[in-house]
Design brief:
Layout (H helix, E strand, L loop, with lengths): L10 H13 L14 H15 L13 H4 L1
């Protein structure tokens, strides 16, 4: 079977297309298009995990950050 990619321009179009597909018992899936590259998303997720584990740098004096981060 072929895959058809549909890109509705409005929420109303999207709802109508979904209703038609459900009425015809056609399976479909929705994918959110991210403006970010997969590599960037992976780096952000890794950073969040590091923060949860406590692997962070605390800046003691915001006016003089270099001693805190070096």
């Amino acid at each position: 079977m072929e895959t058809i990619i549909v890109q509705p321009k409005t929420k109303k179009q999207q709802a109508t297309i979904e209703a038609i597909l459900m009425a015809l018992d056609v399976s479909f899936k929705k994918e959110e298009k991210s403006p970010y590259s997969p590599e960037f998303v992976a780096k952000i997720k890794e950073s969040i995990e590091q923060a949860k584990q406590g692997n962070v740098v605390v800046i003691k004096d915001p006016k003089n950050i270099w001693p805190s981060i070096l």
